Amino acid sequence: MNGPIIFILEILTLIAGFAAGYFFNRYQVEKRRREEQAKAQGIIQEATDKANKIELEARAKALKIVQEGEREINQRRSELNREIERLDRRRSELDSRAERLEQREQNLNKRQSSIDRRANEVDKIYTQQMEKLQEIAEMSKEDARKLLLDEVEKEARGDMARIIRQIETEAREEGEKRARKLIADAIQRVASEHVAEVTSAVVPLPNEEMKGRIVGRNGRNIRAFEQAAGVDVIVDDTPEAVTISCFDSVRREIARRALTRLTLDGRIHPAHIEKIINDETKAVEKIIAEAGEQAAFDAGVTGLHPEVLRMMGRLKFRTSYGQNQLAHAVEVAKLAGILAAELGANVEWAKQGGFLHDIGKAMDHNQEGTHASLGAEFCKRYGVHPVVVNAIASHHHEVEQETIEAVIAEAADAISGARPGARREDLEAYIKRIRTLEDMATSFAGVSQAFAIQAGREVRIIVRPEEIDDLASARLARDIARKIEETMQYPGQIKVTVIRETRAVDYAK
């Protein structure tokens, strides 16, 4: 009986415990809820306070901005009112000024009409006076103007001729003094030997029998020699000699040396001919290289490419009017260096321009172009300075001379070529040049006679005085000199002298 009661009591105790726990838990939840609610209300209240505070600050700032804006608007309104008042005053001033200008314009119109009337009267008086003058002078207005212009032109032409003669005389005197001093000093300081080396194309033979050995059986030896050397061998009636003919001076020299060795050796057959020519080709190439280097050393020119020096060495076998071209190049380089030093130009460029100015003459004759243009292009390809290239290209005025060194190189070339004994020409070429000079001078209008004197270095021209005046004489001399430069090839320079003579003859009876 106690067992069930105890069980019931335990159940009741358990129920009471659950109930107590439930109510306690509910109490705790309710307590936390009230605390969270109180905290939330606090946060809401704090946020509300901050919002009210921010709203008050914003209203204060907005009120301040509005007040500042109203003050600025009031200030701008007052400035605008002042500007309007100023514009009103300016408008009134402009209106009054416009009225004054209109009044002045009316006065000017009245004066202009009066001036126009007076101008018309003056024109009428001028026309009447001109008519009276024409009646008195028996000459029209156009005739009087033409006469006056003719007199003025005649007087001006006379003044121009006198001024031109005066300027030319002064320039010639000063220029000749300076030029003589420079040229004389340069020539004296060069002091080098100038041997006219003319390459001979005639090979002497020990006897007449050697001609037959050179020709060979059925001409096989001479054909082999000509084919290997690239020359023509002329076997004629000249005793104990044969002639080698070729445009290329280097090939001609190789052939001359080879044929000389063959005649001394005595073994003349195609195989030996080819060997000797190959040996002499190498020997001449070595001579060419050494000659170019030696010439550059003698001229005092440095820094040139070996190929340029080798090409210069070919000039050892080239002559112009009997003057050896390599010796001429050395002479021109020395003269150009001295002139450049005296004139304050670049000595190195001037010497290089003088040394290389005729390098184009060493080129193959199959190449097209003048020796000046060919030489300039060749030197430019091997890194020669542009100033020197211009001096080479312009020493015959085929292109414009850009520097003083180019002018110096041309002057040195003329000095070397014009030196007595430096160049010579045969009789036929000399007579042809003299006739060409005289015919060229007489082809100009107004020329009566022309005479080439001083071995063709001067041409004297006599003009008809009724057709050529003083000014036209100076112009004619320049025109003839320019035509000679453009159409003729000649050593040195040619002086052109125009003579105008007026004779007055009368008889006493």
Structural Rg: 56 Å
User: What percent of residues adopt helix (DSSP H or I)?
Assistant: 55-70%
List unreliable stretches of 5+ residues.
191-200
Task: Kindly report the spatial arrangement of strands forming the biggest sheet.
Answer: 1-3-2
The average pLDDT value, as a whole number, equals 81
Give the overall shape.
flat
Order of helices and strands: HHEHHEEHHHEEHHHHHHEEHE
Please tally the β strands and state the result. Answer: 8
Distance between the termini: 211 Å
Number of helices: 14
Main sheet overview: 3 strands, antiparallel
Binned strand content: 5-15%
Task: Explain this structure.
There is one protein chain. With 509 residues, the protein is mainly α. It has 14 helices and eight strands. The protein has a three-stranded antiparallel β-sheet, with helices on one face. It has a three-stranded mixed β-sheet with strand order 6-7-8, with helices on one face. A two-stranded antiparallel ribbon has the order 4-5. A hairpin with a 6-residue loop joins strand 2 and strand 3. Helix 9 crosses helix 12. The longest helix is centred in the N-terminal third of the chain and has 136 residues. The relative contact order is 0.05. About 2% of the residues have low confidence.
